[in-house]
Amino acid sequence: MRLVMRSLNDYLRQKRVESGLSQLDVARELGYSSPQFVSNWERGLVSPPLETIAVLVDLYKIPSAEVVGRILEETRDYLEASLGKKAKKSKGKKK
Description:
Helix 2 packs across helix 3. Helix content is 72%, strand content 0%. The chain is built from five helices and no strands.
C-alpha cells in the first residue's frame, strides 16, 4: 500500500520555509549529504518516515499534536476512499 500524504508534505515544506531552513540544511541535520531526500517527500513522491517526522517536529518547532492530527485525518480519508471504492465494486458484482 502506497500512502503519500500530500497535504502533510505541503505542511512540512511550509514549516521548513518558515523556519528559514533550506532543503540542504534539513538533509544535513538528518544526516544526508543531498537535499534530494527532503525534496522527494516535499513533492509528494514519498512520505517521510515517522522517525524523520519526529526530528522535523523538533527542528521546525511545530506542535506534535498538530502533525499527529494531520496524519490521522489523512489516513482516515485515504481508508474511507479506498473502502468506498471497494464497496462500490462489491455492489456492482452482486446480481
